[in-house]
Amino acid sequence: MCGADVGDAWLVSRLTEIFCTRHGELPGCEMCGAPADPPPYCASCAATTVTDQAAVRVVLPAVRRDLHGLGIRLTRPVQVELVPRRLIDHLAEPELWDVGHPSTVSGMTISVGDQVLRLTVVEGLPLMRFGAVVAHEAMHAWMAQRGFSEDLATPLREGLCQLTAFSWLRRQTDPRAALIREAMERDPDPDYGDGFRTVRDAVLRKGLQPVLAALRSHGRLP
Fold first, then answer.
1. Total of domains in the chain
2. CA pseudo-torsion sign 142, 146, 150, 155
3. CA 190, CA 158: separation in Å to the nearest integer?
4. Which pLDDT does position 93 carry in this prediction?
5. Does residue 3 fall inside a structural domain?
6. Domain shared by 196 and 103, yes or no
7. How far is residue 36 from each of residues 14, 45, 108, measured CA to CA in Å?
8. Who has greater pLDDT, 186 or 97?
9. Which of 73, 100, 141, 154 lies at a 20 to 30 A Cα distance from 92?
10. Same domain, 88 and 196
11. The dihedral sign for the CA sequence 97, 101, 102, 103
C-alpha cells in the first residue's frame, strides 16, 4: 500500500498478500481481510468489482457458460440489472421480492408466477461475489420457470439456490471463490446456511435430479 519495507513483522491477508503493520488500524476487506482504504474492499478485491451494465455485459457470458455446465439453463432469457444498494434494500419486501440473503440483500429475482421479469444484483460487488449472486438468483428463476411451488419451504428453496452458487464457485480459479465457499459452509443462518447443508447432503446421497424431482413434485427431499 505504501511501498515501504515491511520490516521484521507484517500482516498477511487470506489471499496471502503481505502488508506492513502500519496499516493494521485500517478496516479489513470484506472479502479477504486485507487493509481496506477505503473500505469495504482492499485495492486488490476492489479491482474486480462489477460497477456498471457495461461490466455486466463483459462478465456475464462466462457466468452463464458455467451455469450451463451445471445444467442450469433458463427457458427464457432474463436480464441481469445492477442497482444501487439503497434501492435494493428499499425494495426488499418479502411478499413481493425473492431476496438473495436476509441480512445483507445482494440480489433479487423479480417474477410473477412463472414469468421472471429480471434478476437484480447490487452494484459494486467483486466478481466472484457477483457471480455467486447471479448463480443463486438464476436458480430462483429456473425454479419459477419450471413451476416449482411458491410454498416450497424457505430452507429448501434457498438451500438449493445456495448449492447452485456454491457449485458455480467451485468452477472458478480465483482464490476469492474459495473464501466465499468457506463462509457459505459456516453460515449459521437457518435458511441460507442450514438449508444449504441439508440440500447438499441430500444431493450427495441421492443425486441432483432425484432431489429436483422430489422438490418439484412433493415439496420435500427424497
1. 2
2. negative
3. 10
4. 55
5. no
6. yes
7. 13, 9, 27
8. 186
9. 73
10. yes
11. negative
16 located within any domain: yes
Do 149 and 53 reside in the same domain of the chain?
yes
Q: Which three-class secondary structure string do you get for the chain?
A: CCCCCCCCCEEECCCCCEEEHHHCCCCECCCCCCECCCCCCCHHHHCCEECCHHHHHHHHHHHHHHHHHCCCCCCCCCEEEEECHHHHHHCCCCCCCEECCCCCCCEEEEEECCEEEEEEEECCEEHHHHHHHHHHHHHHHHHHHCCCCCCCCHHHHHHHHHHHHHHHHHCCCCHHHHHHHHHHHHCCCCCCCHHHHHHHHHHHHHCHHHHHHHHHHHCCCC
Q: How far apart are CA 203 and CA 52, in angstroms?
A: 36
> Do 146 and 64 belong to one domain?
yes
Q: Any idea which of 6-10, 52-56, 87-91, 92-96 has the lowest mean pLDDT?
A: 92-96
Q: For cell 440483500, what's the residue?
A: 105
